[in-house]
Amino acid sequence: MLGIGGSLREGSQSERALRIALDGAAEAGVRTRLITGPELVLPFYDAGVPEREERATLLVEAIREADGLIVVSPGYHGALSGLVKNALDYVEDLREDRRPYLDGRAVGLAAVAYGWQAAVTTLEQLRTITHALRGWPTPLGGSINSAETKFDEGDGASDEKSVRTLRLIGRQVAEFAVMRGA
Length: 182
Known about the structure:
Elements: E1 2-5, H1 13-27, E2 33-36, H2 54-65, E3 68-76, E4 79-80, H3 82-89, E5 106-113, H4 116-132, E6 136-137, E7 142-145, H5 160-181
Parallel strand pairs: 1-2, 1-3, 3-5, 5-6, 5-7
Antiparallel strand pairs: 3-4
């Protein structure tokens, strides 16, 4: 199970939300891996340039090997962050694979933004992108309003409902991956 997202700020609210979702996947018995912030600082994706810098190659290989993916983006001005969008654009490198793009993979999605409007529209965009990449968005997605919910350093939050939602997203991805592999 691969988790990608967060922001450039280490320990950001969206990164903490991602860690909680991955904890839910781990509780369901799958191995997890996390790629956040600085590891996602990649050159702008260009399909016409076949060479990839090392971090981009590592990201693509991690996605290729993953049976499930959890993506958490901050919502900036009503949209997902450029950092997360660019990382998702690199999924195009999987177009010729046996499992092209995110085909056959469950994808758990959450958005963390200061306000409901940005949180909801960011989650919608993540779902649209996942569909375009042939992924299976989990039935539950998370829209977290960081004006109301604050994540702490101990994998908790001021709103227990948000924590339960994120853990459930992680479990749904893990359960789908296990069922798919059975």
